[in-house]
Design a protein that fits this description.
Layout: H1 17-40, H2 50-75, H3 87-117, E1 122-124, E2 128-130, H4 137-142, H5 144-178
Antiparallel strand pairs: 1-2
Helix pairs in contact: 1-2, 2-3, 3-5
Length: 194
């Protein structure tokens, strides 16, 4: 089957190769970041360990990939959901997709804002300096943003983890209970399908 296979309505039957690659690369990076973040909960945020620089480096790369993914999604139509999917499930699916995109954007941005408020340098993989977000001197002097941003970032990470769990449960529901093609739309192709 080629990537241009269409359904009867003319909609693409599955996501294209770029969307699939971005989905799975970002998913792996996000899971890595969550695991690293959980481990780093036991390390003071102002302790400049190599783990913090790794977390910041992978976070910036993930953020850039998410920007590419959002731009790709805005310019490439998603495959249609099954026609027999109830309207309420379609609404929930759309809402969940929107929430996941928002979290993928806000979470790295809050991390970037947090280290910027703390004036902590970002050196991508120990090689390239990444600029901090310029903040007014009054904000830097007050220290309030530096105090609240770790809590906001942490809260967003935990709630994002909850939404990821719901996303995985929904995928399992479609694969094993509804037994429809929703999950297949985003899975990489096997050699026999080319």
């Amino acid at each position: 089957m080629s990537e241009k296979v269409k359904t009867m309505t003319g909609e693409p039957a599955r996501y294209n190769a770029v969307a699939i690659l971005l989905h799975w690369v970002i998913a792996l990076l996000v899971l890595f970041m969550i695991g690293l973040g959980l481990y780093m909960d036991h390390v003071p945020v102002n302790d400049p360990t190599p783990l913090h620089q790794l977390h910041k480096s992978v976070g910036i790369v993930t953020m850039l990939l998410i920007v590419v993914r959002v731009l790709w999604r805005l310019t490439h139509k998603a495959p249609a959901l099954p026609k027999d999917m109830p309207a309420a499930q379609r609404m929930v699916a759309g809402g969940m997709e929107g929430l996941l995109y928002l979290y993928q954007i806000f979470l790295p941005v809050t991390g970037w804002l947090m280290v910027s408020a703390m004036a902590m340098p970002i050196v991508l993989f120990g090689l390239v300096s990444w600029p901090l977000i310029p903040l007014p001197q009054s904000v830097m002097d007050s220290g309030t943003l530096a105090e609240i941003m770790p809590e906001i970032h942490n809260w967003l990470a935990w709630t994002f983890g909850g939404f990821i769990a719901l996303h995985v449960l929904a995928a399992l529901y479609h694969r094993f209970i509804r037994k429809d093609q929703v999950v297949q739309r985003i899975l990489p192709r096997h050699g026999s399908e080319h």
